[in-house]
Design brief:
Layout: H1 16-25, H2 41-53, H3 62-81, H4 87-94, E1 123-129, E2 134-142
Antiparallel strand pairs: 1-2
Helix pairs in contact: 3-4
Length: 147
Amino acid sequence: MTRLLLIFSSVGTPTNSAIHQYMNQKKVPKDPTDPSWKNDAGSKSGSSFMDKYYPDGNKTDGGTVLGYSVSQTLVQVLQQCGENLTRANVMKQAASIEDLERPMLLPGIKVNTSPTDFYPIKQMQMRRFNGERYEPFGPIITGAIHD
């Protein structure tokens, strides 16, 4: 009997599909097509991955970027599991991620989870459009949810 170990990062229909045409028509700037991202280490890593495993994929689609990023996080969880690939251990390791940096996240943004906190990203950095591209400004901001 085959058993399902996990379902990872299941996502519904992207909300961006509803605004995609309008955003392009209005020439709203979008980072994935910004030339400055082509030199980013994370973008290079993602592009290389797609060239090898998904050559027909759209490299500017936010869904493929998200898929690459969350897949890298799953790899980390499975590495933390070692040889103990049980549902209990997968859940334990998924709830034990500490200061994990991923190439597609901005520098300094880290993935953290705990047994009582399953929200992996709680940081951001403000950015503003300079007429050509978005540029980060100010410190990394950490948000917290309070009861």
